[in-house]
Amino acid sequence: MAEVERQYRVTRSAVDALLRGVEDGTAGLPGDVTPRAVRSLLGAVPGEPAPKAGGQLDATFVVQLFAVFETACRRCWTEYIGSSRERLAVQALLRRLRDRSRGLIDAGSLAEADRVREARNGIVHGGDRTSQMDFVDAKQRLGRFLGGLPQEWVMP
User: Which of 32, 86, 108, 129 lies most in the core, judged by the most C-beta atoms within 10 Å?
Assistant: First the structure.
């Protein structure tokens, strides 16, 4: 998940710099790209601080982050607990990991990870590209769940 966070921070910084350049006229946009088009694409409001813009950016990285999280959970399940032949739905996978975590994952951590799963599903399946969950929030919620897994499962 650290690599996804690094990619997010780099991209977020570039988007923020672009928005500042659009606002002060130094962006150097191609002739067919207008400042209004950039603001519209990024969800920016003129005069609003750049970090408020870019809901689509957060949504894109929430999806990527969740993919990495799901892969880690599936690896834990197949290598340490379950069967590689059994393909569980993500919700069932998270519940089974919690049940087998020797009490290290509490109901709150499960609920937080489930909230990110729902946000991700809304983005991917429901067409909601402006998820109500930002990247930092999603990372914290998923990190809390992974932090509850026995270390020998996560870091063999």
Answer: 129
